[in-house]
Amino acid sequence: LRRLQPQKGIETSMGLDWLIIGGGIHGVHIAARLLGESGVTSERLRIVDPGERLLERWRVCTETVGMIRLRSPSVHHLDLSSGSLNQFATKWRRRKRAPVAGSYARPSLELFNAHCDAVVETFSLSDRHIRARATSGAVDHAGVEVELSSGHRIAARNIVLAIGAGEQPYWPNWAPQSHSRVHHVFEQGFDGWPSSRETVAVVGGGISAVQVALRLLREGHQVRLVSRHALREHRFDSESGWLGPKYMRGFRRERDFDRRRALVNEARYTGSVPPGVRLALCRAVDRNQIGWHEGEVEALEAHGDGLALRLATAEELLADRVLLATGFSAVRPGGQLVDTLIDSAALPCARCGYPIVDSALRWHPRVRVSGPLADLELGPVARNIAGARRAGDRLVAA
């Protein structure tokens, strides 16, 4: 097996039992589960993430789109007990308005983030955080060695790849990536929010696009929302039956991984919005506060000091700025790190490029996965908060 060779000026840290790559929703929850339920000591665990703090990417993205309340119910959170968030919310009811709402008790973003902070503090996870990017790695029977952007190398007996798709926003072919007034709301270092009153075209038809449009409206901008399809209403991003045996029993029996990928893609309600968000948008459209335009964007052109979007319907929309809320690329996340791990131990992948793992989410005896990399084992819920909890269940049980 190819091993990472020591290089001059590079330090190596040894002796970890668990190294988690990714300090987002999945990485934080799995760290809490390993420390709280599996007897792992904090000295033997680290989380590698380039953010200044854990969950930084989550906070940046949710703030950018103007999220007010989560789509998922209050039993989906980062602590150990399913009732933890509801217990935490009782303190808030004395001083905060509607910390949870609806029949599924969906938490406000403020409540959810405060609860996340409590989980991080309870398990002293900030002390376990290594602020760097994992750039490459190699695995063998004894463990895994990872090289960091800082120049250091870390060795661990086990690694968890809790890597999300948040660093690979999807750019349509017609959208220039270097234009000063065209931005993807999930791009790294996003700074495209208008600072003065503008006419803004928001492109996308899912929950993020609608939330961005509503935030722009609240801040006094003229908003045009452009979607290639009609508004799709779904309470969650997949049917709740995927959380239990109703659909997962058949999914687990399916041994053709091309078919599993098709089942995952068919089950996900991409480009959909929950009822409350849909209602807020419809009210704004009915009041002529937001312009709704249905059609595929064919081209973007300069128009005086602004921009013109040409739709397949022959409609032309003028705007000062274009914000894309078109989701994330379907390509396997992890980049060079995952590529080098695959090369070092011939890790198995389906034709879609995603890992083929066992029921304990093992890609190798020393490598576990969570989030998008667990799609073909956990199904359509793999990427969300419920998927993080499901991954935690599998790791702890094993």
Which helices and strands appear, and what pairs or packs with what?
Layout: E1 12-21, H1 25-37, E2 45-49, H2 56-65, H3 84-92, E3 100-101, E4 106-107, H4 109-122, E5 129-131, E6 134-140, E7 143-148, E8 153-161, E9 182-184, E10 199-203, H5 207-218, E11 222-227, E12 232-233, H6 245-253, H7 257-267, E13 272-273, H8 275-286, E14 290-294, E15 297-303, E16 306-311, E17 316-319, E18 321-324, H9 335-345, E19 362-364, E20 367-369, H10 375-378, H11 385-397
Parallel strand pairs: 1-2, 1-8, 2-5, 8-20, 9-18, 10-11, 10-18, 11-14, 12-13
Antiparallel strand pairs: 3-4, 6-7, 7-8, 15-16, 16-17, 19-20
Helix pairs in contact: 1-11, 5-8
Protein traits:
398 residues, alpha/beta, 8-stranded mixed beta sheet, 5-stranded parallel beta sheet, 11 helices, 24% strand, globular, disordered N terminus
Description:
By secondary structure, the protein is of the alpha/beta class. Helices cover 30% and strands 24% of the residues. The chain is built from eleven helices and 20 strands. It has helices at 25-37, 56-65, 84-92, 109-122, 207-218, 245-253, 257-267, 275-286, 335-345, 375-378, 385-397, and strands at residues 12-21, 45-49, 100-101, 106-107, 129-131, 134-140, 143-148, 153-161, 182-184, 199-203, 222-227, 232-233, 272-273, 290-294, 297-303, 306-311, 316-319, 321-324, 362-364, 367-369. The strands form five sheets. Strands 1, 2, 5, 6, 7, 8, 19 and 20 form an eight-stranded mixed beta sheet that branches. A five-stranded parallel beta sheet has the order 9-18-10-11-14. Helix 5 (207-218) crosses helix 8 (275-286).
